[in-house]
Amino acid sequence: MKVKKISAANVEACSLPKLFDEEKIDFQPIQCVNWAEYPYKPKVNFRIAHTQDSILLHFKVKEESVRARYGEDNGAVWTDSCVEFFSIPAGDGIYYNIECNCIGTILIGAGPARNGREHAPKDVTALVQRWSSLGNTPFEERVEETNWEVALIIPYAVFFKHQIASLDGKELKANFYKCGDELQTPHFLSWNPIEIEKPDFHRPDFFGTLEFE
């Protein structure tokens, strides 16, 4: 998938949806149901672009219940209504998981495998600008059909194990996910399919390819 480069200075996360519209950047679906025992498929789409120093992400979700128990970064956001971006920015096998619940609380980890991952320090997670259509106050599960959006501005400095100056012309291996491990109806959707027996998003061997302009 191609990732457009856009010229945008001093962009705020809340203005990303409008910017993406103006730049005519299309949504991509997160719709692979990889495990038959978790058949529920909320409607999930994302779009991505980059600037000279950041990755820009916008997710739109429609699901039958929502939860945002976690309000502090590096908590268990994957148990809430959560969208995720995993990527290998430097081609050395170290991948980053950037996970975001429906109120913009994030978790960032880095490492070569699921075990032994290093969480980003607070000064790194604080670099990510976020906007959520649901605000930023935690809440317990609301069992009602809900539409929500989050937008993230992820500076390259967030890749804290590396010195990433530019992604221009680079190919990145990556995947995008939607989950909600503790929701009334748990689910595990991916952008690129994952062909294994049990849910596991920490599988860089099933990442797809992003081509940065």
List keywords for this structure.
globular, 213 residues, Immunoglobulin-like, 14-stranded mixed β-sheet, mainly beta, two-stranded antiparallel sheet
Please render the helix and strand layout as text.
Blueprint: E1 2-5, H1 16-22, E2 28-29, E3 32-33, E4 43-50, E5 54-63, E6 66-68, E7 82-88, E8 95-101, E9 106-111, E10 118-119, H2 122-125, E11 129-132, E12 139-142, E13 146-155, E14 171-179, E15 188-190, E16 208-212
Parallel strand pairs: 1-4, 1-16
Antiparallel strand pairs: 2-4, 3-15, 4-5, 5-13, 6-12, 7-8, 7-14, 8-9, 9-10, 11-13, 14-15, 14-16
How would you describe this protein?
Strands 1, 2, 3, 4, 5, 7, 8, 9, 10, 11, 13, 14, 15 and 16 form a 14-stranded mixed beta sheet that branches. This protein has helices at residues 16-22, 122-125; strands at residues 2-5, 28-29, 32-33, 43-50, 54-63, 66-68, 82-88, 95-101, 106-111, 118-119, 129-132, 139-142, 146-155, 171-179, 188-190, 208-212. It has 2 helices and 16 strands.
